[in-house]
Design goal:
Radius of gyration: 37 Å
Low-confidence stretches: none
Order of helices and strands: HHHEEEHEEHH
Shape: elongated
Distance between the termini: 98 Å
Number of strands: 5
Strand content: 5-15%
Largest sheet: 3 strands, antiparallel
Number of helices: 6
Strand order of the largest sheet: 1-2-3
Helix content: 25-40%
Structural class: alpha+beta
Length: 212
Amino acid sequence: MKGGRIPYSDEELAWIEQHKRMIRRESHALFVEKFGRDDVSLTNHTSLCKRKGWRTGRTGRFEKGTVSWNKGKSMPAHPNSVATRFKKGSTPPNTVPLWTERLGKDGYIEIKVPRPNPWVPGQETRFMHKHRYLWEEANGRVPEGYALKCLDGDKTNCDPKNWEAIPRGMLPRLNNQHGRNYDAAPDEVKPTLMAIAKVEQAIQETRRKPEA
C-alpha cells in the first residue's frame, strides 16, 4: 500500500543500527543482500535511519587531521585548455607599453610609469596621474597632508609649473562648497582666490596651535 510503513524485524533493525555509520548506499546494498529485502528502497532505508536518529556521524566538512583523497595527486588538464594556456614568457594581449596614456574617469590624464604598484605585489609598473608623476619627478614626493592643485583650472595641463602642492584643508576653500569655484574663475582672479585661501588656512592653523 502506497505510503504504508515498511515492517522490520528486531534483527533487521539491530543490524541497520549497528551499521549506521556506513555510507547509506553501501549499508542499504548489504542489508538487501543479507535479508533479501528487495522491497526496501534506498529512500526507505534512509528514512528509517532518520526516524530512528541513527546518524552517520559525518558533517560534510573536513575534520582536523583529515587527509584529502587527492593530496599529492596532479589533476589532469582538459585537452582543450592547451590552446588557451599562458606560455612562459608570453605577454597578455591587454598589456600596454610604458608611458601609455589614457583619460581617467575623473578627467585627469593617467600614464603608465615604472613605479611599483602598491596594490599588486611584485608588479613593477602602474598607472598614475600624469601631472603628479611629472611634478614629483621635478620636486620630489608630494608631502603628507598635501594635494596638488591645478593653477589654470585645466586638469589635462600636466606641466609641473601648472600644479602647486597645497594643504588638503585648502581644497574646500577653492571649490564650489564656498562659492569660489576656483577652476571656473577668470584667469586674472585665480591668483587672488588662491591667496585668500592661503591666508584663511594660515589663520586656521594658527588657531589650532596650543598656547605656550
